[in-house]
């Protein structure tokens, strides 16, 4: 059996040190998702953690363990978002300075949040790996560098979630955890397997960046090409060196989810549970609802909702895509006579059928219709695909030529 750098007692020590310094996040049962999955589904709401994600656990533990080794310069880290905020919060609580290197494409919202927690932000690097290299150079002047995932103490701090899960639910059959660099699942698996070795640990990655999935398939760490993903928090091209042996030994399976599945899960959490989760945090639910995680009928499954830091512009796009995929938005165009009353009659028909107009646009002067007609493009709120079909049938029966987008 592989020997890893951390164990259950290390995680227990971290939990004692973090008590009162981080939030003990709730574990809640979801009746809706339980019915949908045919199992008892529980959500570990780490999106309610200070800073909006689990990252503050590992960062705080790292600082507490290394406080005496730090010089006057404080700490340096690299991150595109959640780790940046976790380190900034931990440094502020410890009364030390923090410098965070973020990729040049990091969202303005995450930059502002990190600065708001008291850290200095430096934009450098076209990738997280480049930002990490810059941060390490800055740390060469005596400051402590805090890696976002490839660090035994970071892994240990994240593992305290596993202890909390078992304290609230002593006998889970499956625990589903998102994987990026591997620090979160490495710590959680260490804690849970140390106490309940029969519990299955399932990792979830976006298919757009399957680094852990590929590593387990090939039996070694590999660097993969990454496509853009709404689960940017787990878009890590190569899992950590310290994390790989833990994942190989303790994680039972790694599954992949597609972008549409993640977007649907974000929307489902928001609508059904009033929980705002970022793409990475919603990935476990995406895997469950897509039947990619095997759970015994009536069994107990815990989904680790790792964070809720979803930028508003992306949230808007995710919601819109999810609504369209679920038949909640009908987008169509129709040609009408360009005379008073024509538009009112069209909108009246939509209203009679229970459709709510979200947006409307006149497209005059097109080559596909005469000078005396105009094309109207509408987005209409619907109750589902059956409702869309009903509205389309009525509109066509009244003489409208409908083109559904």
From TrEMBL:
Residue intervals of the ACT domain: 331-405
A Pfam family the protein falls into: PALP
EC number of this enzyme: 4.3.1.19
Co-factor(s): pyridoxal 5'-phosphate
Cross-referenced CDD domains: ACT_ThrD-II-like, Thr-dehyd
Keyword list, A-Z: Lyase, Pyridoxal phosphate
Cited Gene3D superfamilies: 3.40.50.1100
Record InterPro entries: ACT-like_dom_sf, ACT_dom, ACT_ThrD-II-like, Ser/Thr_Dehydratase, Thr_deHydtase_catblc, TrpB-like_PALP, TrpB-like_PALP_sf
Top class in the EC scheme: lyase
Keyword Metal-binding: no
GO MF annotations in UniProt: threonine deaminase activity
Sequence similarity: Belongs to the serine/threonine dehydratase family.
PANTHER family: L-THREONINE DEHYDRATASE CATABOLIC TDCB, THREONINE DEHYDRATASE, MITOCHONDRIAL-RELATED
This protein's name: threonine ammonia-lyase
Gene: ilvA
